[in-house]
Amino acid sequence: MAERTLHGTGATPRSGVGTVVWYGRDISLPDPDDVEVDPETERRRFADAVDTARAELESEREATAERVGEDEAAVFDAHIQFLEDPTIEDAVETMIADGGPAPNAVDAAFGEHIEQFEGMDGRMAERADDLRDVRDRLLRLLTDGERVGLGDLPAGSVVLAERLTPSDTAQLDPERVAGFATVTGGRTSHAAIFARSLALPAVVGIGTDLDTLEDGAEVVVDGDNGTLLVSPDDSERAAAANESGAAVVNDSVKTTDGRHVEVAANIGQPAELKPAAKRGADGVGLYRTEFLFLDRETPPSEDEQYEAIRQALDTFPDGRVVVRTLDIGGDKRIPYLDLPDEENPFLGERGIRRSLAPDSDLFATQLRALLRAAADGAGDLAIMFPLVATIEELDAALDALEAAAGLDDYDADAVDPEVGVMIETPSAAFMADELAARVDFLSIGTNDLTQYVMAADRENERVGDLHDPTHPGVLRAIQQTVTAAHAEDIWVGMCGEMAGDPDLTELLVGLGLDELSMSAVTIPEVKTAVSETSYSSASERGDRAQLAATRSEVHTTLDT
To answer: According to its UniProt record, where is this protein mainly located (predicted)?
Structure first.
């Protein structure tokens, strides 16, 4: 038995065993009293460091998009924006003009902003880590510090850190790194999302107990149970080393009593399509189209969008591909679209709200591309509208789709893609019966739905306990949506992180979900869980869970 067990939040249902390697940034700043400063020289040093940092970020963004995914890579866009922030740049240059060395000026200027962000609520607090990443990159360049090669660690390394930034995590090589664990972080942090994309065992948010471990200690990272086993025994080491996940199941799956449940993949860019198919995905339950609009100076043409959609349909010729129309705003920034600066962008102009107003021309072009792809025959295309909160929004989106169908030279009557709505807001859950009467399916986005139902930002660790989709309020919103969909004889799916948790598969099957869509890494585990579940028993458990009054009662129901 292990010497002791540290508890945190599991990020990936994988286990690994290896040797601790601590990762940190010990950057020594010069003593201003011991340095003779030439302001012009320091300004040039700072400018050169900014140019080099920008080149590094652009290169890392491209590599991350190819290796991990476009959604994950988009965080580097925010880092470039911070690097070029005129407020920070002016502060650095002012301190240099006053006689400060460039490294000290960078440290002080970024430090002020980091402190400001740490004092904010919601997703803005997450920006403190992004600022640290940019600051430390500049300091490394200005002090000629060596960056730890996380991509060149010894085989079997388990990386421990206070926190891991996106640029840190993107370096990790799953072939060499057995896993990682951090003091801070939650299941929806950048590090956790990267871990799932890389199928890398990870436990985040362990707290200061992690600091008691030394380099060279042997540990087991159990990303399923959210534990770190210190000095594991032979059986624990063997279990972790031999764990390879569930076997890939290429056929569709049913419960033990014959109820079919579709298990699909969430896709953020074309490079993820074939890996998802190899993991046994029945189709695509969420095809994010934002990758087409990012990292460029002008919007994609109709033909570009058509080709990308056709690629997805060709990859799953016997499955369904659910394409979400453009969902920007919130944390998704596209420079050429003149997005507003909003105090709380997640409650602002995003998703369908932009498609029906400032981005209506882009919306029409995208709808034409979708209809063209659907008209070509191969594959089963479905169109899904994001962040719908009112019936009026849905009716307007359906009118736009009808108008787009009338503008092309193909036989519009022969093109009949399924049309659906994402249930991400409490309003949509409350109005699910009216929405269901107008569409062919509903798909529950539990990341945003949980955030809005619980009034708890999914990136804010201080309210992390509230951002849990097993809270009764969220379960009742899910159940209400399922009931409304089935009353109209349409299917209902789920494409949030909850869908990819094998421990919750029985609950979701019991609540009546017809489709579960997730990161490809957990598809085999979820398929196995579906095939081992009795729908009749799961339904009884689902009924009890959604009627519970507290999260504790829900978990008691799930554990019995």
So the answer is: cytoplasm
